[in-house]
Amino acid sequence: MSARTDGPVRVLLVDDDPLVRAGLGLILGGSESVLIAGEAENGFDAVTAVAGGGIDVVLMDIRMPVLDGIEATTRLLALPRAPKVIVLTTFDADDYVVRALAAGAHGFLLKDTPPADIVDAVTRVVGGEPILSPAITAQLIRQVTDAVPDARADAARRRVADLTERELEVAVAVGQGASNAEIAERLHMSLATVKAHIAHIFGKLEVSNRVQVAICVHDAGLL
Q: CA of 128: how far to CAs of 85, 140, 155, 158, 161, in Å?
């Protein structure tokens, strides 16, 4: 995990288009809660920059030369102090996005997302909040799990069997695309308790993002 201290969220912008980086820089640079800590024009440079430390969130383009965003995401999340990774795309659920999320990315943003929503997404992802709408989550799950082999379904059922009854309720709610606040209201628990349950779920299911939780719950036949 990335080492967080008090202060603004430190963001690395990764895109091979300098105009996109400049636009994101202008959007995020106007927020007191965000600091642009660096830029990279390909995935290889992004991994090098993050390895040097001081990065909390990476805004990662998918299609880039030298090293694409999918492989870069895999390498980043294998680092000892891995940042949160948000993939950038011009499409709302193309195959590249599905593969990036499967690799462990913490969510995605469309490149035409309103400025205020980009700032909000960056700060939310650091706090462990989802940045995928229920509709997009469902669409991604359908793309990944159209046909679930028996062996994968059995494996998913074994994994969810390790969850407590309460954790299972939270996992199903995550699979339905609910935010932490919505889960807290639905299950009558505090936000802190929801976050604790989600941390336990991630550990027991051996996943790194909410989409992977949703896929596992879906594979187990609970959605």
A: 12, 19, 26, 26, 24
The pLDDT value given to residue 3: 47
Backbone angles phi, psi at 221, to 5 degrees: 85, 20
What CA–CA distance (Å, rounded) separates 79 from 46? 12
Q: Record the tokens describing residue 163, joined without a space.
A: 């969850």
pLDDT band at 210 (very low <50, low <70, confident <90, very high): confident
Same-domain status, 46 and 127: yes
User: pTM of this prediction?
Assistant: 0.69
Q: What is the mean pLDDT of the chain?
A: 85
- Strand partners for 10: 35
Question: Domain range spanning residue 108?
Answer: 9-131
**75 and 164 in one domain?**
no
Averaged pLDDT, 159-180: 92
32 CB contacts (<8 Å, ≥6 apart)?
A: 8
- Return the SS3 of 59: strand
Query: How many domains is the chain built from?
Result: 2
Q: What angle do CA 34, 86, 115 make, to 5 degrees?
A: 50
Burial of 151 (C-beta count, 10 Å sphere; 0-12/13-18/19+): exposed
Q: Tell me, yes or no, whether 92 and 195 share the same domain.
A: no
Tell me: do 117 and 62 sit in the same domain: yes
**Bridge partners for 109 per DSSP:** 88
- Shared domain check, 71 and 37: yes
CA distance 105 to 87: 7
